[in-house]
Amino acid sequence: MTRILPVAGPSDPAIAEAAALLRAGGLVAFPTETVYGLGADGLNPAAVARIYAAKGRPATNPVILHVADAASAQALVSRWSPAAQELAERFWPGPLTLVLPASGTVPSIVRAGGPSVALRCPAHPVALALIRATGRPLAAPSANRSQHLSPTLAQHVASSLGEAVDLILDGGPTEAGLESTILDLSSDRPCVLRPGPIPPADLEVLVGPVDLWAGAVRAGDRQAAPGMAERHYAPRARLQLVAPGSGLRETLRETPGSVAYVALGTLPPLPPGVRGILLPLDADMVGARLYALLHELDDAGCERIFMERPPEDEAWLAVRDRLRRASAKEQP
Ligand code: TXA
Ligand code: MG
Known about the structure:
globular, DHBP synthase, alpha/beta, 11 helices, binds threonylcarbamoyladenylate, eleven-stranded mixed β-sheet, 332 residues, 19% strand, Rossmann fold, binds magnesium ion
């Protein structure tokens, strides 16, 4: 049985126990303000290798190092730019990951052999206390099997990774529910590699124009975004985005098996047998709820999920990105 320890706050004794496990090369899942992370000592290549094995993660996909403050981040990069300084001052601790040129301290396996390292200072008090107690940067991808949904509850970690984790710290549901915004500062112009809770416009106020990486990764595409496989964050059920109105009822009626419809703002009348779920027309609230909902529908044996296509404005950028990936066709 995987051990799950409830952790009430930053001074909970479970944190010292978890830190000891991490210093000994173990794997500890912990809550952050975005999703649960699968942590290991980020300066211990053998411990980081266990992360890749537990997740079934390709060796080409680097991991984020989590630090307690900007000073610790500076020790891990070869050049800490004024932009990095301004962004860290404004958004750390918080859901912003910065990609910067790595210093010689960062093990190759963390970088997946590349020249840069991704750094983030998480805002969750348990995560910060754990990093400080361990005294090392913590390598931590989302605590799920590769290509599966990210965990927003300790229980999601247990059912996805099971015995592969030495300990799960249970801090309750995560707040943002979607993974951090990733900003690449390692090349000429800043580029958002993954949209997240911090929208590009908030970054542009500080660092000027920011590119938005187009997403669809094909062989030979920008290699700065190695983990951005098109189908990612995916539920077991087949997810399809639809416009409400014309033809929806017929589509739902004609779909065999166990079917759910997720509406935004108002629930339209649905054919009998279709499970209707109403989410508010609020991007942050949908972001916070989305993965937990998809986990629940998977657990309930739902085979087909139809979801109302969210609005096109920037507030919905991260939700649209995750939905696009979750509804992408399985790659051969
Ligand atoms: O909110 C988050 O960021 C969560 C929590 C646990 O902190 N972590 C997370 O990690 O989502 P992960 O590994 O699931 O996603 C990190 C993404 C991957 O797509 C990876 O390819 C990318 O960051 N990444 C990591 N290092 C990179 C680097 N040096 N250059 C470009 N992308 C990098
Ligand atoms: Mg992930």
